[in-house]
Amino acid sequence: MSQAQMQTTSQAGAAGLPPATETRLQVLMVGLGNEIFAIETDMVREIIDPVPVTRVAGARAFLPALVNVRGNVIPLADLRIRFGMRKTQATADTRIVVIEVDIDGDPVTLGLLADKVYEVTEISTRQMQQTPRLGSHWRPEFIRFITKWSDEFVIVPDMSRILG
Amino acid sequence: MELDPTETFRQEASELLDSLETVLLDLGQSPQNRDLIDAAFRALHTIKGSGAMFGFDKVAAFTHDFETAFDLIRKGKIDANHEIVTVSLSARDYIRTLIEDPDSTDPIIGEAIVEELQRLIGAGPAAAKAAAPVETAAEAASEAPVSAGWRIEIAFEPGILRNGTNPLVLLDDLRALGPCTVEADTGAIPVLEELDPETCLITWTVTLESACSQDEIEDVFMFVRDEMKLVITPLDAGGQGGFGLDMSMPGDAAPAVTEPAMQPKAAPAPAPAARAAAPAPAAPAPEKAELNRRAEDKGTTTVRVQAERLDELMDRVGELVIAQARLSQIAHSGTDLAIKAIAEEIERLASGLRDSTMGVRMVPMGSLFGRFRRLVHDLSRDLGKPVDFVTVGEDTEMDKTMIERLADPLVHLIRNAIDHGIESAEDRARTAKSATGRIELAARYVGAQVLVTVQDDGAGLNTARIRAKAEENGLIPPGANLSEHEIHQFLFHPGFSTAKTISALSGRGVGMDVVKRTIEAMRGTIDLTTIPGHGSSVTLRLPLTLAIIDGLLIRVGEARYIIPLSAVEECIELTAEAEARAKGRSFLNVRGDLVPFLRLRDVFDADGQPDPHQKVIVTSIGDTRVGLVVDQIIGSHQTVIKSLSKLHSDVTMFSGATILGDGSAALILDVAQLVTLGQSRAESDRTPEAA
Description:
- The complex is a heterodimer of chains A (164) and B (691).
- Chain A is mainly beta and 164 residues long.
- Chain A is 5% helix and 45% strand.
- Chain A has a 6-stranded mixed sheet.
- With 691 residues, chain B is an alpha+beta fold.
- In chain B, β20 and β21 form a beta hairpin.
- In chain B, α2 (34-53) runs antiparallel to α3 (57-74) and α3 packs parallel to α5.
- The interface between A and B is medium-sized, with 26 and 26 residues.
């Protein structure tokens, strides 16, 4: 799935908590540590193989580096640090998911370090679960909701809050 | 791209209004200047005319009254004065809103402005109250020298037809002034084969039997006056004049005029020769060729380009420079001579292209300075402080984006200078200063930087009061030992204001900190000097451009960084003995001067072992210097600046990033921040020593 370019679609739901009626979200399934995160395809620009990173001294821990993606220098975010997960070595499955997020009204492009990228799929808000207390390092405000996908729990993160 | 004609009108009107503003402000200073009055009248006339043409009827109707007023001034019936200039300036603003946002304008404002204007011209010496709506043609000039008639010699520049001017219409206008005899000289028209129908080679001599004034005749040709020769001589009382005598123009080779072949019908009946319309290019005499060329040059010297396109071009050139750097790297690591030669050629071309692209983006500072004249005019009126505004170095050029970003900081500085700097008229009288204050806005080049200075001749900074305020705000303990310079730095502290009363303009303590932040974001610095009783000056030191800089590529640990070359003073080796001498302290002896230094390995928390021969790069910002210890100096590097993401806005040590030849990103050091850091470390080193 290297260098695969993702078409962005506009059919997926808007931000915010899903309404009572069923909404289907088109998402990209991304593995981080032992968890699976569902990232809305609306914000995904592309998925690239790992590239050389440039460490930024003095930056916040979860934004440790910069990468050059075709002439644009963008920050690389490590959500594992934000979620308090253990850092693992890069493997053959490691990818960078380039996303565009709206932060305080400005679109900001950044790369997300992903241990593995699974597939693009649809999830339904009907399967939505209450955010459970999964441990001290889970900050509930970073999670929009948790839902089920083929018998596994997946986390739909709130990117703006995580990065804000 | 297709341009909406309305949009074109808006753009042109916007420029006309800008130049009108300049002209009005000049006129305020020299109310007798005929050229300025004419220029204002022409601008108003054009706005009215094209406004009506593009359906901006409100604009046309409103402008009409002002055009009339300036017509009266032009004819000397009323004198331009300060009040008229002021009301005209507000009229100009009103016209601008009428064009830009007609729905939000309130006609009451317009009526009030017109009323004020009527009052002012009504108060003029010669004009009657009803003078305003009078049409130009109807105004018979009574005071002009009366003559039985006029002999008018008309010679247009050959290129005039291309501008859409129709000489016959002008002749018709003359005819409206009285009975005319028109005679055309077709002598300059060549044979048919050599004839260029778009060149005007006919000259006319008109005998006008009318008691009109010379001004009225000149008015007919007002808009083509620069492109023609016009000689007006009064006829003798006997009505003889020079008619039928010498037909050639005084001095110059007789310019010729062509009547457009397609419009023979318009030819004036009483002119026997005028029908012989034989359009024609003369075998161009050198002089005429020169004239032709001049006329064409006028159309080709400037091209209007949308600003975004220039930005796009700059981005492309930036990418090209990066790609070229990669090519050079690959070429030099191989052995293929042919590729090396091409790589060098491309390097040369790319740097040439970079320079010309940056040149295209350069805009003279004058375009920015002009905006402040209005600001000073209004402030000086509102505050009752007469101020002379002097600008120096308007032709100093800077990158377009830099100039735009400079506007707001300069507004703050100029406001401060008038509001806080310049004293009230009474205070100035007490200190034997001239009643009129003086503010100088100057720009000049210093190396690869531009210095912009705002200087006033006011009272200067009150150091004692700033100190008191800083103590009151708890910024410093009472009685702290600070230099004047350090005390003045508090002015840049957020929320710091010493103004005793808060005026509408300043004193709220916002401003200077914003100015400082904006300037630093542009990789510039700000300096403040003051002489009590003689005024203060603020100097902004700015790079010429934001897009591409010359950098020094260095390595610290595994990572490579860029230091802006403009901040680099020298590179020296950190010898073992220097290191031993500096032991425990971060000072370095550079030819007798103590320079604090920072080990970038520590600052950036770099991995790996330090190189055995560490280098020191001595950098400076203003008067302060700091040495940066690095592992290796790789060389100079054309640095295309990419700004850091918003997500990294908390990072202070770097001002941006760039892309290196191998495609990886490198950070650009923010030397100003590092110098501050180095200074503060040096301070903390010194303190325990002193204790």
